[in-house]
# Entry
Amino acid sequence: MKKLNPGPIATLSIYMFFLCFCLIDFARADEQFGIEVDKDDRCPVCAMQVALYPKFACAMELVDGRKFSFCATGCMIRSWLHPEVYLGAEKADIQHVWVRDYFTGEKIDGSTAFWVAGSDVIGPMGTAFVPLKSESDLKAFKRRHGGKTVFHLTDLTDDKWKEITGK
# Structure
């Protein structure tokens, strides 16, 4: 029996089809949930293309109007802890932190969200930090997915980060 070997053009066409599908899906999610991410946006922490990870994409806006998009909540949290390193700004310059609620996908304020670390949810960068909009969602999430640590972004410090991540 002869083996089918798609040529490089066919392989590239299939890849491009799936890439376009992901970007179109992200554009719909962007319209619905309001976290604006351009298809060319790169995460300031890891340089991954943010639009490829719509479920985990999040954003930060500074008081001067600059906006930064992140591929995952872990990258966003690192920027929250050290904006001088990743954003060239001071912590006081952070005006808004937008994330997507795990259950609904709606845009919520990351500074008031309940955050879960150490669950079974995997994001683009590995084990995900999961934002939830309410305490009842937190309880449901922990029943379904576990979670070792619950925190609020505003309570996060370098010591707490090291305790959670081991880094």
